[in-house]
Design goal:
- By secondary structure, the protein is an all-alpha fold.
- The chain has one domain.
- Helix content is 81%, strand content 0%.
- GO terms for molecular function: transmembrane transporter activity.
- It comes from Streptomyces parvus.
């Protein structure tokens, strides 16, 4: 995400590398957080399309939040151990693949499982987004980068 010439803790928000890091981390964590609430709008239509009951719809919403909340600390620890950028990118790809699976789910069971997998992806990418900013940006720019 940062250029090879940028030393850790030296990226500036106004630089091209800084704008790129802020953009990717905001988009990554934003899609994970948006997905936790946007499903509520679609639940009635999902119930109609899949012919499912209220309990399955509740699990559709809760499966994501349970795995996200339950694994977010693990996601941060994995980022510390294997590299923030690597775990963030794995989380984004994982989240996108699980989102595709949600979109093609033929029944409520597959949808619930895919939502749980989305939560795993979110748990991998969410802590990495702030960690990338904390580790990469110059101390004078960190608050500004997080605030964007």
């Amino acid at each position: 995400m940062a250029s090879a010439s940028s030393a850790p803790g030296e990226i500036r928000v106004a630089s091209p590398a800084g704008r790129w890091v802020v953009l990717t981390t905001v988009l990554g964590s934003g899609m994970a957080m948006l997905d936790s609430t946007v499903i509520n709008v679609a639940l009635p239509r999902i119930g109609e399309d899949l012919g499912t009951d209220m309990a399955a719809l509740q699990w559709t919403a809760n499966a994501y939040m349970l795995t996200l909340a339950g694994l977010i600390l693990l996601g941060g620890a994995l980022g510390d151990r294997y590299g923030r950028r690597r775990v963030f990118l794995v989380g984004v790809v994982w989240f996108a693949a699980a989102s595709l699976l949600c979109g093609i789910a033929p029944n409520a069971g597959v949808l619930i499982a895919a939502r749980a997998l989305q939560g795993v992806g979110g748990a991998l990418l969410t802590p990495g987004s702030l960690a990338l900013i904390q580790a990469g940006f110059h101390p004078d720019d960190r608050a500004r980068a997080v605030g964007r």
